[in-house]
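Changelog note: in this version the structure field was regenerated for every chain. One regenerated record is shown below for reference.
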Amino acid sequence: MSLETRVMAALKEAMKAKDDAAKRSLRSVKSAILLVKTDGSGRELDEAGEIKLVQKLIKQRKDSLAVYEEQGREDLAQSEREEIAVIEQFLPQQFSSEELETFIKGIIEKTGASTMKDMGKVMGMANKELAGRADGKTVSVMVKQMLG
């Protein structure tokens, strides 16, 4: 089932439940999908593209959340937290920190990385294989710890 179909089904449910946070979040996802479909490039949104789109939307909200918390705007911060929770439902199952650590150790062994100079090789392979199952920032921090 495509992302657009799942979002539309969830939006219908949110409307029936009168869940404003879910409606707001799902409409923004629907809007982002529509923008990609009509951007003039003529490309279709495949599964990898869908994951990247959802990750981008979550990252935007996390960035906004950090700004709102820094400025003491708890009302706006809460709204962003709600939207993040709704949008995260459309990502694949996330790795736990233990699973992620094991996975990254395996990649480091495969690539033969031993120093920080090899971080690019490890990150490239990790980002390809993890595709939406772990946050890039978290992966980066963990790789730095293991190589540093």
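Spot check on this record: Residues 97-147 form a domain with the Arc Repressor Mutant, subunit A fold (CATH 1.10.10.410). The chain has a mean pLDDT of 88.
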